[in-house]
Structures are given as structure tokens and as C-alpha cells.
Automatic annotation (TrEMBL):
Keyword RNA-binding tagged: no
Lineage of origin: Archaea, Methanobacteriati, Methanobacteriota, Thermococci, Thermococcales
Keyword set, alphabetical order: Acyltransferase, Toxin-antitoxin system, Transferase
Protein name as catalogued: N-acetyltransferase domain-containing protein
Molecular function as annotated in GO: acyltransferase activity
InterPro entries: Acyl_CoA_acyltransferase (IPR016181)
């Protein structure tokens, strides 16, 4: 991971890769994935369990309350049930960057939709989880994650909180449930063979 260089604006991701990624992976604080093309490093990302709080606190600013209530309603519709809990489990995309030379070519959006989300769904189907969570600087949230020209999943992303950093959430409950069903079927057919 010493060769990771995410370029301008990606200093946090570069430092994490060089100084912390291996320890974080080894100690089960996150799972680090690397994406290679012909043995060249293209990208790395981390996934780990997370929770999204659905608790409404008295002193919460009104816009935050509205966001949380909207999210709860949306999740209840997706799951087809009332959510009685004050939080829901999700999968966190903790770090994500491209090597500098691969940035700006639309690869980030493709990786998010075709690699990162499917892995997150698979994890959620195994350990529980109803969506993908991430924290992004306001500019990155607006120019990349919430921008349909850059990110094929943009229209599904919800803002859980907005400030200089955005907490974003992409619900995928229905997909995780379908994968879980398939895993159970596979388990059953093996057991009874
Ligand atoms: C964010 C990232 C994964 C997107 O992948 P990509 O293939 O480069 O995406 P695209 O080129 O399709 O679009 C990225 C858009 O976000 C902007 N962007 C990316 N990183 C940015 C940053 N750190 N600060 C501000 N804007 C940023 C780009 O300028 C571009 O917008 P523009 O076309 O209006 O200039 C990649 O740019 C990257 O690794 N950035 C550095 C690390 C980072 O910010 N990771 C996200 C942390 S949650």
C-alpha cells in the first residue's frame, strides 16, 4: 500500500493507505480491498459494519430532524415494516480512492456500482445491513456521489446529515434480502444433499 497516491484532495486516503490500512485490516477494524489492473493498483476501498441513527433528539436542528424522519419512512416502505429501533445496521465505505492517474475518467462511478455496492450487499446479506453508508466532504458529495453524470447510483443516495461533511446513505434492503434468501437456499440444498 506504500505506492498509493490518491492525488490532490485525496491526502487522507493516501495517508490511511500508507500508514494505517494494513493495521486496520489485520486488527479487523475494517476490510481493505484493492483493485488491480494487470498488476497495477487502480483503487482501494474499505468496508466495515456501521449504524445509521434514526433517533430524533429534542435539540436537533429542524432540517436534520426532517432528513432522519424521511429516511425512516423510506426504509419502512422498503422493508415493508415499522422500524422500532433507534438505529439500523449498514455497511460503511470508510475509505475509497483511485490512484491519481486513474481519476477523472469515470472509473470511480463504475467501481462504486459494479464492485463496491455488490460486495456491500453480500456482506449485508451475511451479517445484516440495509444499505451503504459513507462520509464525504461536501464538494465530493455534490460533485461525485450525488451527481448522476459521475455516479450511476446517485439518484438512490440520501443525505443523512449535511455540513462541511455529508453523511450519505444508499439503501439496498431489497437486494440484501434477496441475496440472503439465495444463501439460505444454497445452504439448505447442501445440507440435504
Ligand atoms: C472521488 C473519486 C473516487 C471519484 O472517482 P473519479 O473516477 O475520479 O470520478 P469522476 O472523474 O467521474 O468525478 C469526480 C468528480 O468529483 C470531483 N472530485 C473528486 N475528488 C475531489 C476532491 N477531493 N475534492 C473536490 N472534488 C473532487 C472531481 O473534480 C469530479 O468533478 P468535476 O468533473 O466537476 O471536476 C476520485 O476522484 C478520488 O479518488 N478522489 C480522491 C479521494 C476522495 O475524495 N475519495 C472519496 C472520499 S469519500
Amino acid at each position: 500500500m506504500e505506492s498509493v497516491n490518491c492525488g490532490e484532495g485525496g491526502e487522507e486516503q493516501t495517508n490511511f493507505a500508507r500508514e494505517e490500512a494494513w493495521d486496520s485490516h489485520r486488527r479487523c477494524l475494517s476490510t481493505v480491498f484493492v483493485v488491480l489492473s494487470e498488476n497495477r493498483l487502480v483503487s482501494y476501498f474499505t468496508l466495515s459494519p456501521f449504524i445509521v441513527s434514526l433517533k430524533i433528539r429534542e435539540n436537533m436542528p429542524e432540517p436534520k430532524k426532517e432528513l432522519v424522519m424521511e429516511l425512516r419512512g423510506r426504509l419502512e416502505r422498503l422493508l415493508g415494516m415499522d422500524i422500532k429501533y433507534s438505529s439500523v445496521p449498514t455497511i460503511l465505505l470508510g475509505q475509497f480512492c483511485l490512484q491519481n492517474e486513474y481519476r477523472g475518467r469515470g472509473i470511480g462511478g463504475e467501481l462504486l456500482a459494479k464492485v463496491i455496492k455488490p460486495y456491500a450487499v453480500l456482506y449485508a446479506a451475511r451479517i445484516g445491513g440495509v444499505g451503504l453508508s459513507l462520509h464525504a466532504k461536501k464538494q465530493v458529495a455534490k460533485r461525485f456521489y450525488l451527481n448522476p453524470k459521475k455516479n450511476p447510483l446517485a439518484s438512490g443516495f440520501q443525505a443523512v446529515s449535511k455540513g462541511s461533511t455529508y453523511e450519505l446513505f444508499y439503501p439496498f434492503a431489497a437486494e440484501a434480502i434477496a441475496v440472503r434468501r439465495a444463501l439460505i437456499e444454497r445452504f439448505k440444498s447442501k445440507e440435504f444433499r
